[in-house]
Amino acid sequence: MKRGKKYIEKASGRDRVTLNTPLTAIKWAKENSFTKFDESIDLSINLGVDPKKADQIVRGTIVLPNGTGKTPKILVFAQGEKATEAKDAGADYVGGEELVEKVAGGWLDFDICISTPDMMKSVGKLGKVLGPRKLMPNPKSGTVTMEISKAVSDIKKGRLEFRTDKYGVIHSTIGRVSFDLKALAENYSALIDAITKAKPSAAKGKYIKAIYVSTTMGPSMKIDVTKSIESEMAEVA
Question: How many CA atoms lie within 13 A of 217 on its CB side?
Fold first, then answer.
């Protein structure tokens, strides 16, 4: 991939030898953002798991303490009282069979999909449309539920779903460049804690092997996985 002049300039200014503490690396990424838009601060977390084995897939959800900095468009498949509940909670799009047909026709102007269990027979037909885009509602991620109001509210507050990709890596955001360091540190701490607690019992050896932080368009910096950000948080309190 060909890199731009600004990317190369920022990348050349990082220390590629020394492992950095979490706060140092996050601060570096934040200060070296070079775009005109409010980039996200992203983590790539390499785990010591074999994602080809079902019992070693790492997945879970978390509501970040300070949100993600982005308000997603939420679509809810529901009918009757649950549809009303979804609208009252702030869902952007709510509907039943007619909404299923609209999505089947190619409309995808939403970021997250939630469904009540009774709608899944119809929603299941959208597997080829929603599956590849990782939008398919799933009980494990809390997006197939009768607790519609809570699900919508949590997502609006900054709930994230994390999952290992085919290489055993979790890609997730901890906020935006505009966030202060304290907010980013708290979000980092919460995410790493959630991933640590989600360690499969079948995983052996070193679990968190490497963590990299970067902005949307910027170069990454490697974090020392043996260092806890909690010990640094007093610096930004």
Answer: 17
